[in-house]
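Could someone model FE3-S4 cluster with this protein?
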Amino acid sequence: MEVKKISKKYRIMNHSIQNQPKVYIKTFGCQMNVNDSEYIIGQLLKLGYSTTEDISKSNLILLNTCCVRAKVEQKIFSLIGKIKKIKESNPDVILGICGCMAQKEKENIFERAPHVDFIFNPSQINNLENIINNLAKYGGGKYISCDDTPEFSLNHIPVKRESKISAWIQIMRGCNNYCSYCVVPYTRGPEQSRGASEILSEAADLAHDKYKEIFLLGQNVNSYGNDLSQPVTFSKLLELLNNIKGIERIRFTTSHPKDFSFNLIKTIKKCHKVCNHIHLPIQSGSSKILKMMNRKCNIDYYKNIIKDIRNNIDDIAITTDVMVGFPGETEKDFTDTLNVFKEIEFDEAYTFIYSNRETAVASLLPDQVPLQAKKERLWKLIDLQKEISAKINKKLEGKIFEVLVDKKSKRNIENQFSGRTGTNKTVVFTGKQDLLGKLVKVKIVKSTAWTLYGEPIG
Ligand code: SAH
Ligand code: SF4
Ligand code: F3S
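Reply:
Sure, complex below.
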């Protein structure tokens, strides 16, 4: 009886079944994970699945996880706990865990949540067809697929992109930097670049499919190509992509200050499709803390890059990531961060409270900052950044920007759209016809710290 039940359950994984099985997927974490989910869905559609947003109607539940901070991990474990009830009322449902937490926690997930059926790590996203077929063969039991694939390729892997306007392209995976607070090198493995010809052909296909913008992804895009048998620099890759007809905008993230070369600054200036926006995580304004973070550059080095960027590229927007409450961060170190923020004036900052990750070496450091102090520092920094962003945006009132329209109004107001400037600012405006996917000139009439409001011209 039991055997029969299990085999029926796993037959759902087999695309030959008559009723189209449904997958519910929830994604946590960064853009890389969101793009991984697009590949996961692409492959499942090919296997005969359809997607559902109703978890109770699904045959397969997939959680594409993140573990960069403890809070998100707790949230995921609690969701896995809730799914147990769904599985109790419908034992045929299959639950898979993938993404960074799947790699970090592996067997621990099965121990804490025995109702999980299978696990695979981020380097397996191009291998999903195999995993699903193996699972069907397995006919029950627990299944883990976490071996690193030798080469990073997404060639011919089906992908179901969320947007028809802007597309992510992963140019590398993994990270070699081992910032002392960070789990990513452990969850995504060592840095591996994708071959330039594969990236160029993906971009050409996207142009053919009328995509306007490509967004290059990697944990440290500036070190792209170092590991290739025929090394290609990131600057060279940008130049090659800049020549692709039909693509109007090129964005990239994330840059690491230690690898941000002057040559790259010249390339961004020269290549007119490369947007005037650089996301350059600072992490802290204190050289002492940066050293403990193993960021491999001090604050003067960082400030000099900003100077070089601003002296060479007009109207460039610079955004950053920053953390408060790293172990050993004193009030003086935090004041250094506030002062650097006042001096640099970033367009926007993603602010985080340091989260102790037992996999990363900073968890062994003494002088952990109490949570209340961390929170107070975060609020102070957010308030300061809000003031700076509002001041910068205020100066943009009256100016005209080219906006790539990527969304209709959330509130369903007729012909109200939002889009992004090359400097990555959100602009909301009302047009006279459907402008989705178009590049539109918009005059800014009003601003807040987070949004610009405008009127289309011409
Ligand atoms: N590779 C990118 C992004 C890494 S994760 C980079 O180097 O910037 C995105 C951001 O999360 C980081 O920039 C950092 O600010 C934050 N982060 C990473 N680990 C963290 C931790 N343990 N606690 C709090 N924030 C963290
Ligand atoms: Fe993490 Fe540092 Fe690598 Fe970014 S560069 S992924 S913060 S180790
Ligand atoms: Fe991204 Fe989270 Fe992994 S930020 S790289 S999904 S740990």
